[in-house]
Write a structure and sequence with these properties.
Helix content: over 70%
Structural class: mainly alpha
CATH class of the largest domain: Mainly Alpha
Number of domains: 2
Strand content: under 5%
Distance between the termini: 37 Å
CATH topology of the largest domain: Serine Threonine Protein Phosphatase 5, Tetratricopeptide repeat
Oligomer: single chain
Order of helices and strands: HHHHHHHHHHH
Largest sheet: none
CATH architecture of the largest domain: Alpha Horseshoe
Amino acid sequence: MLRTRIFKEICQNVDLEEKKANLKEKLKNDPNNLELLEKLAAVYYYQQEDFKAVEIYKKLVTLDPENAEYLAFLGYLCYELNELDLAIDYLNESLDIDSSAPFVFFILGNTYSRAGMIKQAVDAYDFAIFLDLDIYTAHMDFAKKYEDMGRKHNALKEYLAAYDIDSRDVKLKNKIKNLKEELNIV
């Protein structure tokens, strides 16, 4: 599930450089090991080296083209890199394989929204909601994840999106205010 893959905590409290070196060494003997490639991509993702993670996920998709999760995460990475056309293509390919993934519909909605394709965004969000995704919680989860990764501008965007859904949360309002101050945004 894409949500699990994005929010996995395998790289916390770990020396990422050492982990990366160990994975690369193991991959020398088994360069097509899907599990090792996934772990290496996760390290790059946590180190905010999204382009390297994309290259690994492209290899994963080549090795296992019917894996909806690989396609979805590749789409998500392209979304992060603002390569919206590619993101849309990969996310839709993922949904062609597994159309029961609400979180993929949510990411697709975000991608369409960012691309200015509002009707398609609403349709994707509708599918996510129909499949029981709590969009407010999804935005909050992303915000916390981005904060943990040091991507504070992305965190702020997600907190603001959650606030647009429910502006009654005083703690969230204060969180946004503090983050804006920290980022020197007026």
